[in-house]
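Below sits the subject:

***
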Amino acid sequence: MAKTLRYAERVEEMLIPIAEQHGVGIYDVEYVKEGSDYILRCYIDKDGGVTINDCEEVSRALSEVLDREDPIPDAYILEVSSPGLGRSLTKDRHFAASIGEEVEGTLFKPDESTGEKAFQGILKEFDDKTVTVKTGDADDAVQVLERKNIANIRLTIDF
């Protein structure tokens, strides 16, 4: 397992009691390198959406625990925020919570059935290998996508 994933998983474990204490849920935790900086991003959510105060309170509490426990030896920037409206679906729990929602995304290589790299539709189902998206009105208008071929998938923002 890559160190970035190990660090993110460890921080998520540390974040659980903090999130519970502040009445928010954990959407995702990621530890990424952008340019020369490492960034620890913690996405929190709650019914009705998170506020800047929620982010600030969780950030302060998590920062104290991170300083005390020091699970990441590298220097990094801590960010705590909402996952936003067009949230990425990266984990099974994200897919499960988004069944019936409109999604859009891109593939690493064109889909064999459509020849397209972009897709959009209603998320119907998923498993560990595939994601099924309803792409039209007909019952058989579905696109079954291999998860390993999905570059990104997110909820569609509808204005």
The first strand starts at residue 25 and ends at 34. The beta strands are 25-34, 37-45, 77-81, 102-107, 118-126, 130-134, 142-146, 150-155. The CA atoms of residues 53 and 59 lie 10 Å apart.
